[in-house]
Design goal:
With 360 residues, the protein is α/β, with parallel strands linked by helices. Residues 1-11 have low confidence and may be disordered. The protein is built from twelve helices and eleven strands. The protein folds into two domains: 9-154 and 296-340, Rossmann fold, CATH 3.40.50; 159-288, 3-Layer(aba) Sandwich (Rossmann fold), CATH 3.40.50.460.
Length: 360
């Protein structure tokens, strides 16, 4: 049956634009796939140009980067990291930084800026756009999947896949030695990775920031499990998981130069308590940055491609101050204020209840 949809040439009737693009915050599988899609869509379908800034917002402040072409992005679809480099620096951390952003936009003759980043980077993008320093379209990037307004952020599927594979491998070694294995995954303020990987990997229990834990209940549950003849257990812990106040002493983490708490190591605390209270041999595996490195999954490659195309289309539709999002498998754009203005997206109660079905 013939489609009623107009041909591509009719869908993309718009004057060519000259767009800037940057990647900010932590690296994430799929960044290059987004850049590739931005370049391909703007150059091939709109006849425009794309300039890539090096090292995130720092490159915009210092007016550093490179002209991007289809050839330059060839072979980058499966490549991890970002060819443009990234940093956590924002214009608001530098004296006159916002004004320098405006100067760079004018000097490079850019019509708009596509900002690929997480909650911090996109919050900055919102302010830069609203205060008139640059016209911005955001692309949500974070393995934590904690940005509002979109069902999924890219990098999350890859991180969950890596964590799940690790849990699968730990099952066999735990069973061989009758051990408890405590696996720490990323998740500063939310437990999406831990919850999904715990479910997919058949973890015994999962501890997440949204649900403070009681170490006594954790140990009692493991003791009952082992008393029933199940001698191997996997406990998945998000790096930001914390005990119920007053139930376990945890030292206050250090703060980095960007004001972020330096998390990591809660698994050692939990494992130590489990071994001391139960007598079961307990070992720790901290996955760390392996979750955000390497090649993106097929799902993330496709999502990144759709986000990159959607970001360019949003710019040509005049939807600056927006972020591309996916909901019900449809790409759209929503105001950045809606995405970052209402706080982080937490693990849904229904999903957490499903995970609890499999806890002892």
């Amino acid at each position: 049956m013939a489609s009623d949809r107009p041909p591509l040439a009719e869908q993309t009737e718009s004057a060519p634009m000259r767009l800037g693009v940057l990647t900010g915050g932590g690296d994430c599988p799929g960044l290059n796939a987004v850049i590739r899609a931005v370049v391909r869509r703007e150059i091939k379908d709109y006849g425009g140009e794309v300039f890539g800034f090096h090292d995130g917002w720092r490159g915009v402040i210092e007016n550093r980067g490179e002209e991007l072409s289809v050839l330059r992005l060839r072979g980058t679809l499966p490549r991890g990291g970002t060819i443009l480099g990234t940093s956590r620096e924002t214009p608001y951390m530098v004296e006159g930084g916002c004004e320098r952003v405006a100067e760079t936009m004018a000097d490079r003759e850019l019509d708009g800026l596509i900002v690929i980043g997480g909650e911090g980077t996109l919050s900055c993008a919102r302010s830069i756009n609203d205060e008139g320093f640059a016209k911005v379209v955001g692309v949500p990037k974070t393995i934590d999947n904690d940005i509002g307004g979109t069902e999924r952020t890219f990098g999350f599927d890859t991180a969950v896949s890596i964590a799940t594979e690790a849990i699968d491998r730990l099952h066999t070694t735990a069973e061989s030695h009758d051990r408890i294995m405590v696996v720490e995954v990323m998740g500063r303020h939310v437990g999406h990775i831990a919850t999904w990987a715990g479910l997919a990997g058949g973890a015994t229990m999962t501890l997440i920031p949204e649900q403070p834990f009681d170490i006594v209940e954790v140990c009692d549950a493991l003791a009952k499990r082992h008393a029933a003849g199940k001698y191997a257990s996997i406990v998945v812990v998000a790096e930001g998981a914390l005990p119920i106040p007053g139930t376990l002493e945890v030292s206050e983490p250090a703060v980095d130069r960007y004001g972020h708490k330096v998390l990591g190591g809660i698994a050692h605390v939990v494992a130590g308590e489990i071994e001391q209270r139960t007598g079961f041999e307990t070992r720790v595996t901290i996955l760390g940055h392996t979750q955000r490195g390497g090649t993106p999954t097929a799902f993330d490659r496709v999502l990144c491609t759709r986000f990159g195309v959607g970001a360019v289309d949003a710019a040509h539709s005049g939807n600056f101050g927006h972020m591309v999002a996916i909901n019900a498998n449809q790409i759209s754009s929503i105001p950045l204020a809606d995405a970052v203005g209402e706080g982080l997206k937490f693990v849904p109660e229904q999903l957490w209840e499903t995970a609890n079905v499999f806890f002892p």
